[in-house]
Amino acid sequence: MNHNIDRDLFRRIQDRVAIVGIGHLPFAKDIGRPISDTAVEAIQLALEDAGLRNDELDGMSMFEMESTHEVAIARRLGVRNLQWWDKISYGGGASAATLMHAAAAVACGLATTVACHRARNRGAKTARPWAQERELVKDDKALHVPWGLIRPVDVIGMWAHRHMHEFGTKREHFGNVAIAARKHANNNPYAMMRGRPLDMQTYLSGRVIGYPLTLYDCCLETDGALACIVTSVERARDLRNVPVLIHSLAQASGPNPVHLANYNNTPTMETTSVFCAQLLWERSALKPIDMDCAQIYDAFTPLVITGLEDYGFCKRGEGGPFTEGGRIELGGALPVLTSGGGLSEAYVHGFNLILEGVRQLRGTSVNQVPNCKSTLVTGASGVATSAVVLRTE
C-alpha cells in the first residue's frame, strides 16, 4: 500500500464529509413488498430528512446482495444523472463500507450527494440460505460444511466454545449482551422486540440453537429498508440537520479469511475486525477511550464480545468481564447497541447500527447517551469487514 496516497485521501475525507439524512421503513417479519419499492421509499425519507430534492442525488452505494438496480432506483426517484455507484460484498461486513465508498466518491469529486442503503425482503424466500445447501459447495464454506458446520450459528458456536475454554468466558457474559440489547429495544418504538423483557434466568433457559448459543444469542430475521445521505461538510451546513461527521473509515479482510470461520487463523483468535481496527485507529485522531457509545455488529452475542476486544476497548480474553455490572447498558461506561441492534431491534445486516450512530450524535436517540460526541459503528467480525468512527462538529 502506498501510505502517502492513503493519508492524503483520508485527510480529504476526515471530518470533511458528513451524513446529512437518514430514513427507514418500519421493520417487519415479512414486509410484503418488493425491495425495488421499499428501497426507493427509504432513500426518499432520507432525502427529505436532509432537506434535499430527489434530483440532487447523483451517487449510490449498496450491498452486493441487493437485487435492486441503481439506474432503476434513480429513475423512480427522478434523479437526472446518476454519475457514480457501486455494490459492496460480504453481507454484514459491507455496512460501514457503503459510507467509506460514498465518502471517497464525494472527497474525490466523483459525486456530490450519495445515498447509501440496504433493503431486505427475506420473507419472500422459501427457505434460509443454509437450508438450500443441496449442491456441491465450492467456496470457502467447503472447509467446514462437510463437518456439519452449515448454519452461521454453528460456526459462531465453535468460536464461543473456544473463547470459553481459552479465557473463561461464561454464558452469562453472552447473556449480558442479549439483555443490554433487549433493555435498549424496550424503549425503541421501532424495535421488533419492544415489550418483551429479558432477564438472565430466561436467557439461560433459552432454547438451544447451536450450543452454547440459544435463541437469545441469535439475531432476528427481519425485513426492512434503510438509507442515509452522504455529502460534503460545506454543503451539509446549508441543510436541515446538524451534520454528522465521518471521521475515520476502514475496510479489511486480514490474511486468508475463511467466511465466518476465521477464528483459528491466529493463536489469540483474532478475527477480520482486528485488521480493520488497526487501520481505523491509525486514520483517526480519536481512540477507543474517546467513544461515548459503540454500535458493534451483533448477528450473535459472541461477536459483541470479540468486537470489544478487537476494537481495543479491552484486552484479548477480557470481553466477557467487560460486559459485567451494566457496563454496556445505557448509563454504563460504554453503552452498546443503543437501539437494540440486530438482536432486538431488527437484523438488516447492520445498517440500522449506522442510523443509530447518527441519532446518538444528533441527540435524538430514544436511549440517548448524554453529551454524545463520538461513536463507533462496526461491520461483521468473521468476514471481510468495515467500520466507521462518527463524530459531531
Structural features, described:
The protein has 393 residues and is of the alpha/beta class. It has 2 domains: 3-122 and 222-236, Thiolase/Chalcone synthase (Peroxisomal Thiolase, Chain A, domain 1, 3-Layer(aba) Sandwich); 138-217 and 249-282 and 286-383, Thiolase/Chalcone synthase (Peroxisomal Thiolase, Chain A, domain 1), CATH 3.40.47.10. 33% of the residues lie in helices and 16% in strands. The chain has 13 helices and 11 strands. Strands 3-2-4-7-1-8-11-10-9 form a 9-stranded mixed sheet. The longest helix is centred in the N-terminal third of the chain and has 16 residues, at 35-50. The protein is globular.
Give a nutshell description of this structure:
The chain has 393 residues and is of the alpha/beta class. The chain is 33% helix and 16% strand. It is built from 13 helices and eleven strands.
